[in-house]
TrEMBL record:
LysM domain span: 42-86, 109-153
Keyword Thylakoid among record annotations: no
Lineage, top ranks: Eukaryota, Viridiplantae, Chlorophyta, core chlorophytes, Chlorophyceae
InterPro entries documented for this protein: LysM, LysM_dom_sf
Keyword terms, alphabetized: Signal
Organism: Volvox carteri f. nagariensis
Pfam family, one: LysM
Signal peptide limits: 1-19
SUPFAM superfamilies: LysM domain
UniProt cross-references to CDD domains, sorted A to Z: LysM
Name assigned to this protein: Chitinase, lysozyme
């Protein structure tokens, strides 16, 4: 079972173990086209937590397309290190007509890519769609965004409302869920429990005298959520301790300790926004067989502007 969250105790190990994936397919040079799948495929090596669903979400394609490229592969039995075929960015070539108007609405507004940004997250945050952002950036490959890169986005959106109403959405995403700690239960494959329980999360203060200088065990809650570490590192004051609404296939997931889930840790394997890390009890609220699954698909989340756990800046 993948333990992905980067607690301070395990940070060195997590960084040393990170893998870099290099696309074997060159980006198309025609700025009036975007890759979607028929003529360009390449090999991809399965990483911890990968599912066909998560790969389809990241590459702007569908599970059916990936399955068609891998007829002998059983999606529920993927192994880390296994090599499969994936479309370069979806499937075939689709021409996109660039706007000819010079009005700001037609051109969009410029935006500088920040750590953790994806087209999907930007679309959610601006109340628009991935297709609308892609149409404004025909020469940009969504899976190769670089921090500091300038793109175009639709102007004038206030972002989405939280599902079910409530406070402003600060960070959202969808993909899969994994577990890495738990203060009251464990899985058969983890008979000794989770060493991460004794690690200091990203949102723990570095000041030993601060009231939030606590390990996960000392914090005493299974409601803590770990998100993309790059996003959290750049937005600790904004996101640490904030309420997280979690859904499994659109159905709300109840926090295991009562109350609400909250952002409190960073996750190395969640970089890119397609995954969040739970306590085992938290993930079992989405799938009772989380121990055997390891990775639970169909998870979506919204971090909203409500304080659940007080954060003391370092």
């Amino acid at each position: 079972m993948p333990r992905c969250s980067s607690t301070l105790l395990l940070l060195v190990v997590a960084v040393a173990a990170s893998a870099f994936i290099v696309d074997a397919c060159a980006a198309d040079g025609d700025s009036s086209r975007r890759l979607l799948a028929s003529g360009c495929t390449y090999t991809y090596t399965i990483q911890p937590g990968d599912t066909f669903w998560a790969l389809a979400q990241r590459r702007g394609t569908t599970v059916d397309v990936i399955q068609a490229l891998n007829p002998g592969v059983v999606p529920t039995r993927l192994q880390v290190g296994q090599v499969i075929n994936v479309p370069c960015s979806g499937g075939g070539y689709v021409r996109i007509s660039m706007p000819t108007s010079t009005t700001p609405a037609a051109r969009g507004c410029t935006y500088t890519i920040q750590p953790g940004d994806t087209f999907w997250a930007l679309a959610q945050g601006r109340g628009t769609t991935v297709d609308a952002i892609q149409a404004l950036n025909p020469g940009v490959v969504p899976t190769r965004l670089q921090v500091g890169q300038v793109i175009n986005v639709p102007c004038g959106s206030n972002g989405p409302a939280p599902q079910g109403g409530g406070s402003k959405v600060l960070y959202s995403g969808s993909g899969s869920g994994t577990y890495y700690y738990d203060l009251r239960t464990t899985c058969p494959q983890n008979p000794g429990g989770f060493p991460e329980n004794n690690g200091y999360p990203y949102c723990a203060s570095y000041n030993a005298s601060a009231p939030t200088y606590k390990t996960l065990a000392q914090l005493g809650s299974n409601n803590a959520i770990a998100i993309d570490r790059n996003v959290l590192s750049a937005n600790r004051a904004r996101l640490c301790g904030k309420k997280v609404l979690v859904f499994k296939n659109g159905v709300p997931v109840t926090a295991p300790n009562g109350g609400s889930f909250f952002v409190w840790d960073g996750c190395e394997a969640c970089v890119g926004g397609g995954r969040i890390d739970f306590s085992l009890s938290g993930l079992q609220g989405a799938a009772s067989n989380a121990c055997s699954l390891g990775v639970v698909p169909g998870i979506s989340w919204q971090a909203v502007d409500e304080v659940v756990q007080r954060f003391v800046p370092p």
